[in-house]
Design goal:
By secondary structure, this protein is α/β, with parallel strands linked by helices. The strands form five sheets. It has a four-stranded parallel β-sheet with strand order 2-9-7-8, sandwiched between helices. The longest helix has 24 residues. The two termini are about 40 Å apart.
Length: about 300
């Protein structure tokens, strides 16, 4: 299931933070992972805002920047001897800086260490810009608070980060560029069990939040639903998007009842899953519990039953 690229209002100022929903009966594929790993994805630029060209004959490809005064800087990308492809992509310091602020603020709010990784040894301008801006923002604005809370900001190369992540126990935020975050979030969610158990929040440096399911749509199930057939679609990520949004609204408006409702709804979800009542995508992942596969409607009904008891 591949998620289509979506365009959000003010996308350059909002950044995706997906993380898995974990239960004891579903063990991570990486056995030493004990805590969720949160992926912070820079949702702007890179290949998602690129321009591409295919060439069919010999020629010279140039990277050209034209200044306001008309002067130009040129770099030779490649001299083609035959057919090939060219790609150009960009990013902005403003967007990278807002991503850095969002990551550090989210780490502080959730009391988690923050890792950040690029490939600046190869990309000495593009990726190095990310590294330098993150370091500057950290040193100037967040280092003291991180040290006060006993949190760590850690930078390394993306390939080294992958090795460290696999060997780690989890429990931190892994900040990635756009493409890296797109790939690694699917890897992490699948390793923890299921894409349907991956929720996400769009975070802006101004403190605005937008909650969503991290996965895309389930087209095959939807067509079955249109035919009147029963499906067993997992709604967990969507439910947790609602609970996250309701909890944040409750925090901002100082509404403890709303925060309590969000907490109880999540507890009802966990109680349902821990009792073995699951949608079909989770049946083969359960360990130590006899799974009881149900339809989408049956799963939601089971959650509602447990929620009503908690609210009563």
């Amino acid at each position: 299931m591949e998620e289509p690229q979506r365009h959000y209002p003010f996308a350059a100022r909002r950044h995706r933070v997906p993380h898995p929903i974990c239960i004891p009966a579903i063990k991570p594929a990486v056995r030493n992972w004990e805590k969720p790993i949160t992926i912070a994805r820079h949702a702007y630029g890179d290949v998602y805002k690129n321009v591409e060209m295919r060439v069919e004959e010999p020629g010279k490809a140039l990277l050209v920047y034209e200044h306001p005064d008309g002067s130009r800087e040129e770099l030779v990308i490649h001299e083609f001897k035959g057919p090939g492809v060219i790609q150009g992509m960009h990013n902005t310091d403003k967007s990278i800086r807002s991503f850095a602020h969002s990551c550090f603020k989210y780490a502080i709010s959730t009391k988690q260490d923050l890792w950040f990784a690029t490939k600046d040894t190869i990309s000495k301008k593009y990726d190095a810009d990310f590294r330098e801006i993150f370091n500057e923002v950290y040193e100037q604005e967040y280092k003291a608070e991180f040290e006060r809370l006993g949190l760590e900001y850690f930078y390394t190369l993306i390939d080294d980060a992958v090795a460290r992540v696999i060997r780690s126990k989890g429990g931190y935020i892994w900040a990635c560029k756009n493409y890296d975050g797109d790939v690694m979030s699917d890897m992490v969610s699948t390793a923890f069990g299921s894409l349907a158990m991956m929720t996400s929040v769009l975070v802006s440096p101004e403190g605005n939040y937008e909650y969503e399911a991290a996965h895309g749509t389930v087209t095959r199930h939807y067509y079955k639903y249109l035919k009147g057939e029963e499906t067993s679609t997992n709604p967990m990520a969507t439910i947790f998007a609602w609970t996250g949004a309701l909890r944040k609204r409750g925090e901002k408006d100082e509404l403890p009842e709303l925060i309590g409702f969000a907490d109880k709804l999540e507890e009802a979800c966990f109680d349902t899953l821990n009792a073995g009542i699951v949608t079909k995508d989770l049946v083969n992942l359960m360990e130590g519990v006899t799974p009881i596969p149900v339809t989408s409607a049956g799963f939601i009904a089971a959650i509602r039953e447990r929620l009503e008891k908690k609210l009563a």
